[in-house]
Each structure stands twice: as structure tokens, then as C-alpha cells.
Amino acid sequence: MGFNSALTDAGEFGLYQRLLCFVFLLTAIAYLSLSYWIQIFILMVPNHRCRDGDDPLTAATNGSKCGTGNFSANGSGNCPQGWEYDFSTLFPTAATENDWVCENAWRVYVVHTFYWVGSILGQLFFGCLTDRLGRKKTFCWVVLLSVLSNMGTIMAPDHMTFTAARFLTAFGISTISTTSFMIVMEYTGPRNRTIVLCTWAASWTSCAAMLPWIAYALNNWRWLLCIPFLPASILLFVSWWVPESASWLMTKGQVTKAAELLHRVAEVNGKNLSSQYFYDRLVSSTLESNGTKPEKKESFVQTSLGLVKYPNMRKKTFVLLISWMIIHLCYNGNSLQTSNLPFNTYVSFSVGAFLEIPVNMFCILSLDKFGRKWPDVICLYIGGVLGIISGCISQNAEHEIFAMAMLVRITFAAGTNITFQYTAELFPTEVRGRGLSLQRMFGAIGSCLAPTVVFLAEIDRLLPMLVLGCLSLIAGSLIIILPETTGHQLPHTLEEGEKFGAHENFCSIFSSKQKDETDDCSAKFGRDNLAADVPEGTQGVFILTAKETEAKL
């Protein structure tokens, strides 16, 4: 029982955990959400025309988008006197201020691409740093880095500096959600972790829904970039109070510090238990679970390579990583494509964000009843079909295009949430943390490719939706290969992971009576605890820690 038994004594969701959840996590995810959506908003381009002469009215009504009227063979030209922008539909952005349009439109997509490259590298670097320095120290560093790089964005004098600043912003901010999520989850009991996940989803979608109107009120991209400074300041202020993960301290052998933190939790929760009490509990459980000499720990690379050591694990890992990369590409591509819709930008983003709220709640609360695989497949297939239909609609049918885009967003959001949980249940406990880190890297790669797909709008405004629809169908087809996890014991070791779903063929995937191949070796393992190293998005997955597993044996 070990740490989780001691946490139960301290209180699984008392005042201490509520403060962590509703103050710390809520603010951290608000900071993440604002930073993510601002990245999209500050690079939007409104309708524009080439300035022809000194009369803005003439330019706005008669001018061409990318030429003065002296067109070349391919219909393009240049605008020596610059462009006129329709700011009635969108505020002045970094793209309009620097005229990143027409032959310079690629600059916008370069910034987006480098933003996601920074996210990939940041997840890798700070993900490792979290295990070395701890959750709290890493969290403080990433907040500070992202704040400074945001300031650099505001003062950037040219495209290269602007791109570098956005790269560093993503490099730092990419792990804020993971570290804050882990700190709160590692202090919360299993029965209350759905509350943590609902808080995460509510904070993300609420900020996404409000941001368009904040941008509308400020009407300036530099002032908009200052908005995340508010939650960042709160995070830096409360960081002195936010604890290091006691679970992480246990893995480092720092039992005394872990006991002191649990005593602090108990004290705030109104329980009169001393540090010595928790120290004795933790030490005794450690001695019981480590009765034999511990096995030599494998390195990060060695453990990750275990995911492809066995053929069935290799197949599942490949399917999970590729499908997640495509799903992330579709979700982020659809978010970027919103700016290309023939509709009010502020309304489009707000409606899309509000629609994600019921989707998030449905995915969190209903998957145990409906399963993981088929809802995931159905959502991705529906999104794919709707995306293809959207790409074939006449560009004059503005309301139909908007409605289809919102429906596509719902299905992509649902597919994203379901796959979050599905992946965590398919990776064995032994490599679950590493597998999820690898998955998040592939997701960032998909996000990095999304601007390239959206850039196709320069050819045809609806072409990106057609491509995203086809990709969604591919992802749904890949998910069919995976076994269902609902009602099955979670695999613990790589060997158990290899057996899970190994005998499932194309006919049996439609059967709800699939035999659980892991029952003979994992029936003794419970599902009453969420591993301490499960990062962002692993919604409602209950597993045992290594020490609890040994105790059950």
C-alpha cells in the first residue's frame, strides 16, 4: 500500500487538494490555454487588398489581393504601396503589421512550425528534467522561460527574432500542463481524480471561449500577448506554497521530506498526524515491498526501446503513435483553419470552444459505459466524412461551411480526448510513463505539420478541410486494429502487454466477448491507483504503482 495508504491517512481530497486543484491547476491550465490560442490569434490575417493609389476606399473595393492589376501569367503580382486590411472583422495582428501576406504568407507558417518544433524539444528536455530535478523546480523554470520569451515576442524587431521568441515560448510552455497535472494528481486519491480532469478540461475550454472577445476588446496583438502575464504572475506567486511531489521524493529515497509534506497535507486537511507517523508508515512499507534486492533500473532509452521489443507491442505502439500524430494534426489543423472560414472570427472560435465543453464532459464520464475503441473510431470517421464534405461545399455557402467546420471540431475534440485515455490503458505499467512521453512527442510532430496543411488554403480556402478529413479516416482505420480495454485488467509488464490483444483478429474486434489475455497473469493486480508518472490527458486510468503491486503479490 505504501505511499497511497499514507496519502489516504492525510486526506485524499481535502482542503489541501482542493486548493491545488482549483487554484494552482486551474491557473496553470488557463495560462497554457491562453498561450496556445494567442499563438493562433496573433498570426491571423484578415481580408486584404493591394493598395492602389492613395485612396483607401479604392483599394478596399477595387484592389486585388496580391497585385495592382498588372498580373503575370499565373495571376500574381506585387503591391509596391502595401496592403489595405479589413479590420472590421479582425484586429491588427503581427502578420498584418509586418505584411506577411501574399508572397510573404509563408512567414506565418514558418512561425507556427517553429512553435511546434519548440514544443517537441521542450517536452523531451523538460520531461527528462522533471524526473531529475523534480516537478516543482521544473515547473518554475518553464513558467519563467515562457514569460521572458513572451516579452521577447512583443519586442521582436524582425521575423527571425519573432520566430525565435515563439520557439522559446513553446519550448518552455509545453510541459506546464504535464508538471502541474502530475503534482495535483500525485496528491489526489483515485476516487476524486475525475474532478481534477474536469477542472483541467473546464479551464482549457473556458479560456479558449473567452479569448476571442478579450482580443476584440484589446484590438492589439501586443496587448493580447500581455494577457498570459496575469496567470503567470499568480503561478510564480503561489509557487512557494505548491509542494514538490511526495511520490517523486519517495522514488529518490527522500523519505523524510516526503513525510514532512504528507504531514503538511494532513494538517491543512484538519488531521492531527505527525511527520514521524508518516515517516514510519513510508519506511515500513518500503521495507516490506523491497524484501528482495531491487532490479537494476533501465535508462530512459532502454525502457523506451522495450516498446518495440515484442511484435504485438511493436504493432500497438506503431498504431498508437501514428494515429495520435494524425489526430493531433487534425485537431490543431482545424483550429488554425478556423481563421480561413468565411465567417466572423470571434464567433467561430467562441462557438468552437463552447462546443468542446460537453464533448470533454461526455468523454470523461461516459467512456466506461461505451468503451474506448468504437466511440473513438466513430468520431474519427464522422469527422473524416464531414471534413471531406466541407472541402466539396461551394465557397459561397458560408453558413453551411461554418456549421460543418464546427461539427468537425466536435468530432476531432472527442477523438483527441478518447485517444488520451485509450493510449494510457494500452501501454503496460512498466513503460506507461515513457510511452506517453513518446506519444506526446509524436503529437507535437503532428501539430508541427498542421501549418503546412493549412497553408494549402492559399491554393483553395477549403482544401485543408479535405486533407484533414482524409487523414481522420486513416486514423480511425488504424484505431480499429487496437484491442478494446474497457472491462479488462491493465497489462503491468511488457510481457503482459504483448499478450494483451495478441489473439484478436478482424472478426473478433466486433465481438464484445473478447477474452482478456492478461487475466492469467494480471488478475491479481487492482485498478485502484493512477501511476504517479502519468502525464497530461490520461483521463480516468487507474493502475497500481510498482510498490503496491509487489505488496499484492
UniProtKB/TrEMBL annotation:
Ranges that cross the membrane: 19-38, 106-126, 138-157, 163-183, 195-215, 221-242, 317-334, 377-396, 402-420, 441-457, 463-482
An annotated GO cellular component: membrane
Domain of life (superkingdom): Eukaryota
Signal peptide, first to last residue: none
Topological category with respect to the lipid bilayer: Multi-pass membrane protein
InterPro entries in alphabetical order: MFS_dom, MFS_sugar_transport-like, MFS_trans_sf
Domain named Major facilitator superfamily (MFS) profile: residues: 23-487
Coiled coil: none
Predominant location: membrane
Keywords, sorted A to Z: Membrane, Transmembrane, Transmembrane helix
Keyword ATP-binding: no
Matching Pfam families: Sugar_tr
Localization, UniProt: Membrane
Gene Ontology molecular function: transmembrane transporter activity
Protein name: Solute carrier family 22 member 13
Organism: Trichonephila inaurata madagascariensis
Lineage: Eukaryota, Metazoa, Ecdysozoa, Arthropoda, Chelicerata
